[in-house]
Amino acid sequence: MTDRQKHTVQSAHPVPIDSQVAATLRYIRATMEAASSIAVPGSAGSAMGIVGLLAAGLSSTAALRAHWLLIWLLAAVVAAGLGLALMARPASLRGLTLSGTPIRKLALCLVPSMFAGLVMTAVHWSSGNLHAIPGTWLLLYGCGLVAASVPTSGAIAVMGGLFIALGLLALVLPDGLQTLMLGTGFGGLHLLFGFLIGRAGHGR
């Protein structure tokens, strides 16, 4: 076969440039999405859940029931510290920094709701409306989780939705059930989703 005949045969089967370009664009988009996301370790949720259950147990005892607000505020600080520490470890192993884009996105999603919760806690406490504090915490934390699901995963959005539902329920329940709602949310839901996220991570 002459060179001219070879050129004619090759030109009859043009290279699908459009499909190659589309595949390249898909690869670039997937790479950018992976670079802008952060994996939340299941251990972080489990650790926070254990702290929540301990706080629920302590605040439900007769001797400490009057100090439930202080117990839960201390538990929030401890749980946040544990969660950040456990999240920072896999992030550092993947080369992410605490000031990097994924971590910054996660913080921007969570911090506004946490700040609102702090402000509303002070408002409710100063007005003597302690009944509304647990529902406010659960509701605003759930909203923060839904927002944080954008740079993390859909499981976080589901957990956030459940926190929102618990918060709405807590706002209408009597005082005697407020600790139960807090324990169910910050204890039970954290443990459940920590286990589910951890199992999904091991599956990958």
Question: Can you lay out the helices and strands and say which pair or pack?
Answer:
Layout: H1 3-11, H2 17-35, H3 42-59, H4 68-93, H5 101-126, H6 132-148, H7 154-172, H8 178-203
Helix pairs in contact: 3-4, 3-8, 5-6, 6-7, 7-8
Q: How many helices in DSSP terms?
A: 8
Give the proportion of residues in helices.
over 70%
Radius of gyration: 24 Å
Secondary-structure-derived class: mainly alpha
Uncertain segments are 30-36, 95-99
Write down the secondary-structure element order.
HHHHHHHH
Strand content: under 5%
Which oligomerization state do the chains in this entry correspond to?
Answer: single chain
Number of strands: 0
| Backbone shape | globular
Explain this structure:
By secondary structure, the protein is mainly alpha-helical. It has one domain (41-194). It has 8 helices and no strands. Helix 5 runs antiparallel to helix 6 (132-148) and helix 6 (132-148) runs antiparallel to helix 7. The longest helix has 26 residues, at 68-93. It is globular. The model is unreliable at 30-36 and 95-99 (pLDDT under 50).
Q: Can you tag this structure with a few keywords?
A:
single chain, 204 residues, mainly alpha, 8 helices, 78% helix
Briefly say what this structure is:
By secondary structure, the chain is mainly α.
